[in-house]
Amino acid sequence: MAQLTGKIALVTGATSGIGRATAQRFVEEGAYVFVTGRRRAELDATVEALGANARGIPGDVSRLDDLDEIVRQIREDGRGLDVLFANAGGGSFATLEETTLEHFDDTFATNVRGTYFTVQKALPVLNPGASVVLTGSTAATSGTPAFGVYAASKAAIRSFARTWAVELAGRSIRVNVIVPGPTDTEGLRGLAPAAEHADALVKQLGAAIPVGRAARPEEIANAVVFLASDASSFVTGSELFADGGEEQQ
User: Fold this and answer.
1) Residue 94 and residue 103 in contact, taking contact as beta carbons nearer than 8 Å
2) Second CATH level (architecture) for the domain 8-180+215-240
3) Which of the residues are catalytic?
4) Reduced to 3 states, what is the DSSP secondary structure of residue 218?
5) Are 148 and 91 in contact (CB under 8 A)?
6) What sign has the CA pseudo-torsion 181, 184, 186, 190?
C-alpha cells in the first residue's frame, strides 16, 4: 500500500533538486501535493510533470505576503495539510573576509526567516498528527571553508526542530530534519566556479564520503517519505542523516 494515500502535502522549493524529487515521490505514494517555487515557468513545468495530484502556487518563502497567499489557497482547498516539507533554501561560498551584508541577509532571509515563517504561517492549516520536515545540511555540524553563513543558517534549522517538536506535541505534530549529504542537484552544481567544473565538483565531494559518490535527489526523497509517513510515528525532534556516512567518519 502507498505510504501517503489520502494525505495532503506542501513542498516548498519544489521546482528542482531534492524538492522536486520529493514532490514526485509524494505523488507516487498517494499524496496530493501543493508545490511552490519562485520561477513561474519552472513551477508550471513541475506541476505538468507531477500530474493531476499536484497544484502549483508561485511564491518566495522570504516574502511574508507570498507565504500568506500560499496558505490562503491551501485553506480554500479545505483539507488542511498532513505533511509540510519546508525545503526552500540555498547558499553560496564566501569566506569570513569576503562575506557582504547582502550575502548574509540573502542566505538568512531564505534559509532561516523563510523556514521559520513557512511553518508559522502554516500552523492554522496543519492537521492534527501532521508531519513537518525541515531541510538541514551536514554543513551545520562540520567546518567547511567559505561556507560559514550557510552552515550557520542550517544550524538554526536544527534548533528550530528541537523547539517546535516540543511546542507542537500537544497537537501530535511531529517535526524532524532531513540532513542530506552532497547531492547531485542544480544547486550543488551551481557552487562550481564555472559550469565546466560542475562534474568535477560533484565527483570530488562524493569521493570524500564513505559511499564514494554524491546522492541522487530521489535517494534523499525516499528518506523524506519515511519522515512524512506514519512509519515514523514515534520520531520527532530528530535529524535523519541521508549523507552516505559523511558525518559518521
Assistant:
1) yes
2) 3-Layer(aba) Sandwich (3.40)
3) 150
4) helix
5) no
6) positive
Q: Tell me which residue has cell 502507498.
A: 2
Sort strands 54-58 and 32-37 into parallel, antiparallel or unpaired: parallel
Q: List the beta strands (DSSP E) in the chain.
A: 8-11, 32-37, 54-58, 81-86, 126-135, 174-180, 239-242
Coil, strand or helix: which one is 25?
helix
**How far apart are alpha carbons 232 and 225 in whole angstroms?**
9
Rounded to 5 degrees, φ, ψ at 184 are -75, 85
Residue 144 in this model has a pLDDT that exceeds 80: yes
Task: Output phi, psi for 148, to 5 deg.
Answer: -65, -40
State whether residue 83 is helix, strand or coil.
strand
pTM of the model: 0.95
Report whether pLDDT(1) > 80.
no
Question: To 10 degrees, the CA torsion angle through 143, 148, 150, 151?
Answer: 30
Q: What is the residue-wise DSSP string for 150-211?
A: HHHHHHHHHHHHHHHHHHTGGGT-EEEEEEE-SB-SHHHHTTSSSGGGHHHHHHHHHHTSTT
Query: Helices (H) and strands (E) in the chain — how many of each?
Result: 9, 7
Q: What residues are paired with 83 via a beta bridge?
A: 9, 131
CB atoms within 10 A of CB 200: 10
> How far is the C-alpha of 172 from the C-alpha of 197, rounded, in Å?
46
Average pLDDT taken over every residue of the chain: 95
